Amino acid sequence: MGTTQLESVPEPKYWHLRTVLSEALDSEFTVGEILPNERDLAARFGVARATLRQALEQLELEGRLQRRRGVGTTVAPPRMGVAVGTGRQVWPGTGDDAWQPVDCALAAPPGAVATALETARDQAVHIVRRSRVSHGQPVAAELLYLPPTSVPDLSAIDAPSGTARARAVLRELQRLELQGQDSAVELGSARADDAKELDRLPGAPVLVVTTRFFAEGRTAALSVATYRADTCRLTFTASGGVEIHHGPQQEAS
After folding, report:
1. N or C, which terminus of the chain has less Cβ within 10 Å?
2. 46: left (phi over 0), alpha (psi -120 to 50) or beta
3. 89/178 Cα distance (integer angstroms)
4. Rounded to whole angstroms, how far apart are CA atoms 98 and 196?
């Protein structure tokens, strides 16, 4: 058989270096260990610093490395498996939920969220902020939006703000009968507020999981969870019917 044009193209230098570095991470470094600086690494492997940076960026994208402010480049822990679209459907905050409530506020949501919740754009909704941690590091941040109609008895609870208010909102939400939920996943870039909360640089790759929870024939709550793409691996199951977006087209998992 003849050689195709693609097969005849030599492997890029940075990709070969990425393979060499990956093997070094397995044999010479431990999780959390700080790598030598770029100058020393480039000299060790006999490559230009631009080539080294390309290889390091690829390993960061693959979740092998983490770049942290004020620390440097460290060896990343194994990616955390996050199940999406499982057959089990429960309200946020129920049972063994891995998310930790952080705060709660009453404010107008983004336009797309207001449309999904079928509320007026200027109508305030409850916004619960939660976080998820693995190996002592933040790996995901969530904003959970609930219209006042989903938690009508909340006004009687003396918890004006903070974690206590967030927990109270979640408890009240569970009074509704959950009729179903669906999730959609898309690749994005970390906004400034997400980057700060996740200890990443703005523009870092993230996975955004949007989940709608249905009760009483309407969307009773909407979750927008932002996962660090370098530390999380999403697991899809056929029973959940998760939609993976590829630009204008959609593909069901």
Report:
1. N
2. left
3. 8
4. 21
- Give 217's strand partners: none
Burial class from Cβ neighbours inside 10 Å (0-12, 13-18, 19+) for residue 183 reads buried
Model confidence pTM above 0.85:
no
Cβ atoms of residues 62 and 34 within 8 Å: no
Q: Distance between CA 241 and CA 207 in Å, rounded?
A: 18
Instruction: Give the separation between CA 198 and CA 20, rounded to whole angstroms.
Output: 29
Q: 207 pairs with which residues across the strands?
A: 187, 227
Q: What is the CA radius of gyration of the chain?
A: 22
85's torsion region: left (phi>0), alpha (psi -120 to 50) or beta? left
Q: What are phi and psi of 145, to 5 degrees?
A: -105, 130
Q: Positive or negative CA dihedral for 143, 100, 65, 185?
A: negative
Q: How far is CA 40 from CA 46, 52, 71, 209, in A?
A: 10, 11, 17, 39
